[in-house]
Amino acid sequence: MTTKNATIKDVAREAKVSVASVSRVLNGTGGVTPQTQKIVREVAARLHYVPDSAARSLITGRTHTIGAVLPDLYGEFFSELIRGIDLAARARGLHLLVSSSHDGVEDAAAAVRAMRGRVDGMLILSEYVDAAFLDANLPANLPAVLLNSAVKSTRYPVLNIDNRAGASAMVQHLVSAGRERVAFIAGPKTNFDAQQRDKGYRAAMAKYAPDAPLNIVAGDFSEESGYRAGRELLAQKTRPDAVFAANDMMAVGCMLAFKEAGVRVPQDIALAGFDDILIARYVSPPLSTVQVRIADLGRVALERLASLLNPEDSTPASVQTLGCDIVVRETSGGSVSAAAPRRPRRPLPP
């Protein structure tokens, strides 16, 4: 018997079970003993059986595919986020379809609409998404989880990072390390994470360095904007003695501007970022930052969405906030012992 075009009937005959049992095993719908599952999977692998996904979707109403709409696909943050989502999806036999929405609200709407009918659920991270956007573009019966969103909904779970507390802790660390003139490189004005990090900076400066003026320069999360911000800060009549960038990529760009100008980090100006992307520990000197476990954020979001695909799930929609820590490296000029007390991290689900 040739195995190239093996059918589900071939698998059932070789495994000595019914076609229905093979279908239940391969669709993960339960009702089959572990021993039978093992036999069916071994036979299917030996025969190189590939299910007809189109036919299976018509029967089950499921595509076994998850959609993810992100602001961009470029950069270490998004590659780590996608990695976390993909690993969790593959562990559940789910495929991942990814799209970006960096060109505006119409682009985000088009990305969401294009996935309708092709995915069983969606993960959405976009600054353009609000309640009206969701009502207009998402079918009522399509499960979705929102990431890093200001939306408060009884319909969609939201998974956020505690950006405000993380930013506040970093400012406290910089001040405790002897720096009071702490400048801030802000992120995009419409980005929820950037807004929360800005609020954390402002609140912490008012609390820990009340006599120092706020010093905020514009950025857009890119290395180029961090470089421009660094040059702008160096041109100020009174230079800051520390710079806190709203993400690591801007901190890296700022560091280059300082190096070109002969400004030493941290001796002349301390520097810190946010996210703890991989490059943060390899730049010279290594970058102090607020650590976000980015891959875990993707994993937890996928697991929450997977639970929504279970018709028996009755967990109410809620906003879940994941804590973050500060990581003290050489650029902040302090030490671990001088770091601000860390906000207790809320454990991530296993």
CATH architectural label of the largest domain: 3-Layer(aba) Sandwich
Helix tally equals 12
- CATH fold category name of the largest domain: Rossmann fold
Number of strands: 12
Note the main sheet.
6 strands, parallel
In CATH, what is the homologous superfamily of the largest domain?
Response regulator
| Distance between the ends | 45 Å
Which percent bin holds the helix content?
A: 40-55%
Q: How many domain units? A: 3
Give the overall shape.
elongated
Classification by helices and strands? alpha/beta
What spatial order of strands do you see in the largest sheet?
Answer: 2-1-3-4-5-11
- Unreliable stretches (pLDDT < 50, length at least 5) are 336-350
What is the succession of H and E elements?
HHHHEHEHEHEEHEHEHEHEEHEE
Whole-number mean pLDDT: 86
Please name the defining characteristics of this protein.
41% helix, Rossmann fold, 434 Repressor (Amino-terminal Domain), 6-stranded mixed beta sheet, alpha/beta, elongated, transcription, 15% strand, 350 residues
